Amino acid sequence: MRCLVLMLLVAVTACSRTPDEQVLRETVASMQGALESRDPKAFMAGIADDFTGSQGSLDREGLHGMLRAQVLANASIGITTGPLDIAVQGDRATVAFTATFTGGEGRFLPERGSVYAITSGWRRSGDDWVCVNAQWERKL
Prior knowledge:
The longest helix has 17 residues, at 20-36. Strands 1, 2, 3, 4, 5, 6 and 7 form a 7-stranded mixed sheet that branches. This protein is globular. It has helices spanning 2-15, 20-36, 40-44, 60-73; strands at residues 47-53, 58-59, 76-81, 85-89, 92-104, 112-125, 128-138. The relative contact order is 0.16. The chain is α+β, with helices and mostly antiparallel strands and 140 residues long. It is built from 4 helices and 7 strands, in the order H-H-H-E-E-H-E-E-E-E-E. It has one domain (18-138): Nuclear Transport Factor 2, Chain: A.
C-alpha cells in the first residue's frame, strides 16, 4: 500500500506544471533583468522569430538593434514595472503593464526617464512563452 501511495505522489508531482500566468510573470521579470544587466541578447530569448512591434514598423532584428543602441547610450538602465495584467486564452496570452525606464551615466540619479504603457501578445512555445507582438505608448 505504501508503495502505491508513493507511486501516486510521484506521478502527480511529475505531471504538475507551472501555471501559465506564473511562467509569463517569470519570463517578463527575466527579460526585465536582462535589460537592466545590459544584455539585449538574453532579452531576445523571450522574443519570437516572427515578432512585430510598434504597429508593425519593427521586427525582431529591429527590436534587437534598438535595445543594443540603448545599452550603448546608457551606462545604467533601470526598469520599474507596474502590476502585470495577464489574460491567457489557450496557447495565446496578453500581458499589459506600465513601465518606467531610466538611463544615464550610472551616477546617483538617472539623467533620462520615460513611462510607457505596454501591451504585448504571447504564444506558447513548448513549456515556455514567447512574445510575438508588442505595442507601446509613451505616457510621460
